[in-house]
């Protein structure tokens, strides 16, 4: 697969303008009208770890991460809000990634939410889930519902993607929409379309046609369905159908069927793990699943899940996965303890393993302690080992209402790491204020 | 030229839709952009306060009880609208997992919150070989085109 063009597409040329507009738009409102609900969240993570790789080589790493989130709602007393989320990393020792710095802007957008009817618009960079779309884009999104329940949503822009696949670059532009009908509390049914211009597998764009359904057939019973057909390769990409029963506040159960084809779902993959020869593009996965959540006594919850996974290809073959967990919440729901186990039985030994986990938290006053232990037992040796262990101990202190300091110490022994000690210092700062208007 | 025409069409349609929506929106109030009260710690149960149908999602609040059933199928609901979600969750909440070129695992960032459901606990570098073989579609949703260059160390 090759990409012959070097022409910069229109969408990507517009990118700086879109970002600049989204960034600058809040300023006039901030300047002319003081009303706004502001919040700022800073999360700083300092990591330190040394890894002894098979063969005895030892490497030390000390990356420092800063995650910043800023939100301003009720801008100028209007139903406008501004959102930013991004992170950056600098390495204080050996490079922990590609280069000694990294980072990205995850979200940067202005949002309008009409006070009635849920009409909304977004402009900037945002994460979008709408029908067949689950994308991050630099662009615009609008959605509205009419009084009779018919609605439409439209979006367009430049996809925010990252390619690590040789000779394959990200999509040039992406647009689509969804039409739907909703009757409050009873049904929502939608049809959607997505087109991403690019140079993906088979040298084609990505073009999806989707459908979705939520139907409440009786007060505690609902049916859900979602499906996407990939027109570019004339293949069903994915399907999911489920029935869910929620008879009250303590019991929740769901069962269903889902399937996807590698050819249809992975057609626009930009990661070599999802293209040949890593996977056989003619394979198909079909899964029957069931999940239950039962708060059988106040504070105690039983969680059970199981699924049967069937492949068209004998390698990797079929598998069954079962999970059971018990959770207990206490201290006015501030703390939780839990035990869980998972079992995978498969056609091939190399796909079989068991997993056991236990955790607990304890939060007296301003102190918070947590312990989390996890082990996996593999049926077939991986790098000469059949077991993996990890224990995470955490302690934190609420210094101020808006400032919390905490740290983790993690020990891992696994087929990949002979011994792995990792330390993490965490500083969380949350600030919120209202400059007027409603709170 | 084609792409310019697409962009113009999309922009025009978007503006029309917005105008249409603003002028003919039903009189039911939208879900507020921010939950009016601070939420307590732990898993949220909307039913503690809300008994009826959400004006944001137009579905019963019971469906949004944050049980393991809901958490494992939250995408189904999010694909029909994010209004109700974003009333309580800021963008960073979704993008802790649905990230771009994220480098820190959610379970690392939330090491002090073992009660939270976070993917890839433990040395997932080992276990992902199995889970990835059996159900690569679950990996693809986050790693298909929003990847970390460190994947390339093995996936060449």
What topology does this entry show?
The complex is a heterodimer of chains A (439) and B (156).
Chain A: H1 10-24, H2 26-32, E1 37-52, E2 58-61, E3 63-73, E4 80-91, E5 101-113, E6 120-130, E7 133-145, E8 150-159, E9 173-183, E10 187-200, E11 204-218, E12 221-230, E13 235-245, E14 251-261, H3 262-265, E15 284-297, E16 300-311, E17 319-330, E18 335-346, E19 353-362, E20 367-382, E21 385-400, E22 403-413, E23 419-434
Chain B: H1 2-24, H2 68-72, H3 74-78, H4 83-88, H5 91-95, H6 106-109, H7 124-134, H8 136-143
Fold and architecture overview:
- The complex is a heterodimer of chains A (439) and B (156).
- Helices cover 6% and strands 64% of the residues of chain A.
- With 439 residues, chain A is mainly beta.
- Chain A has a 22-stranded antiparallel beta barrel.
- In chain A, a hairpin with a 6-residue loop joins strand 5 (101-113) and strand 6.
- The longest helix of chain A has 15 residues, at 10-24.
- By secondary structure, chain B is mostly helical.
- Among the domains of chain B are: 28-89, no CATH class; 104-141, no CATH class.
- Chain B is built from 8 helices and no strands.
- Chain B has helices at 2-24, 68-72, 74-78, 83-88, 91-95, 106-109, 124-134, 136-143.
- Chain B is globular.
- The model of chain B has no long low-confidence stretch (mean pLDDT 81).
- Chains A and B meet through helix 1, strand 1, strand 3, strand 4 and strand 5 of A and helix 1, helix 2, helix 3, helix 5 and helix 7 of B.
Q: Outline of this structure?
A:
By secondary structure, chain A is mainly β. Chain A has 3 helices and 23 strands.
């Amino acid at each position: 697969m090759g990409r012959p063009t070097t022409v910069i597409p229109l969408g990507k040329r517009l990118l700086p303008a879109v970002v600049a507009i989204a960034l600058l738009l809040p300023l006039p409102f901030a300047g002319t009208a003081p009303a706004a609900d502001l919040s700022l969240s800073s999360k700083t993570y300092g990591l330190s770890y040394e890894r002894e790789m098979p063969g005895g080589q030892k490497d030390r790493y000390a990356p420092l991460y800063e995650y910043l989130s800023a939100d301003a709602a009720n801008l100028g007393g209007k139903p406008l809000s501004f959102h930013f989320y991004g992170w950056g990393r600098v390495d204080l020792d050996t490079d922990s990634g590609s280069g000694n710095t990294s980072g990205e802007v995850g979200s940067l957008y202005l949002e309008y939410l009409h006070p009635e009817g849920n009409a909304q618009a977004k402009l900037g960079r945002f994460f979008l889930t709408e029908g067949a779309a689950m994308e991050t884009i630099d662009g615009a999104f609008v959605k509205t519902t009419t009084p009779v329940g018919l609605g439409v949503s439209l979006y367009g822009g430049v996809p925010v993607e990252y390619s690590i696949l040789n000779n394959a670059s990200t999509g040039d532009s992406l647009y689509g929409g969804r039409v739907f009908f909703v009757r409050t509390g009873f049904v929502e049914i939608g049809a959607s379309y997505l087109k991403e211009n690019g140079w993906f597998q088979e040298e084609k764009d990505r073009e999806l046609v989707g459908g979705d359904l939520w139907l409440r057939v009786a007060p505690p019973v609902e049916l859900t369905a979602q499906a996407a057909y990939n027109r570019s390769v004339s293949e069903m990409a994915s399907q999911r159908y489920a029935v869910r029963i929620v008879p009250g506040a303590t019991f929740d159960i769901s069962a269903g069927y889902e399937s996807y084809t590698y050819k249809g779902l992975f057609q626009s993959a930009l990661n070599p793990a999802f293209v040949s020869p890593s996977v056989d593009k003619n394979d198909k996965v079909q899964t029957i699943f069931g999940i239950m959540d039962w708060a059988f006594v106040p504070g105690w919850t039983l969680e059970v899940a199981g699924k049967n996974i069937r492949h068209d290809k004998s390698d990797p073959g079929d598998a069954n996965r079962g999970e059971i967990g018990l959770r207990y919440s206490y201290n006015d729901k501030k703390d939780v303890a839990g035990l869980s186990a998972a079992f995978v039985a498969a056609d091939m030994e190399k796909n079989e393993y068991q997993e056991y986990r236990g955790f607990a938290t304890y939060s007296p006053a301003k102190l918070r302690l947590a312990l989390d232990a996890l082990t996996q037992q593999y049926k077939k040796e991986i790098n000469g080992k059949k077991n993996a262990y990890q224990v995470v101990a955490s302690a934190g202190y609420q210094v101020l209402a808006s400032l919390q300091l905490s740290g983790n110490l993690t020990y891992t022994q696994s087929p990949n790491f002979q011994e792995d000690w990792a330390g993490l210092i965490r500083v969380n700062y949350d600030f919120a204020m209202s400059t007027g208007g409603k709170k | 030229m084609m792409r310019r025409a697409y962009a113009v069409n999309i922009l025009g349609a978007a503006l029309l839709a917005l105008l249409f929506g603003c002028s003919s929106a039903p009189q039911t109030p939208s879900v507020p952009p921010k939950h009016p009260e601070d939420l307590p710690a732990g898993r949220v149960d909307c039913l503690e306060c809300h008994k009826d149908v959400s004006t944001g999602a137009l579905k019963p609040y019971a469906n949004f009880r944050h049980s393991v059933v809901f958490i494992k199928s939250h995408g189904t609901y999010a694909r029909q609208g994010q209004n109700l979600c974003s009333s309580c969750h800021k963008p960073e909440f979704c993008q802790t997992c649905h990230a771009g070129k994220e480098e820190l695992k959610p379970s690392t960032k939330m090491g002090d919150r073992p009660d939270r459901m976070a993917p890839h606990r433990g040395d997932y570098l080992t276990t992902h070989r199995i889970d990835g073989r059996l159900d690569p579609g679950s990996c693809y949703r986050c790693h298909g085109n929003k990847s970390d260059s460190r994947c390339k160390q093995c996936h060449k």
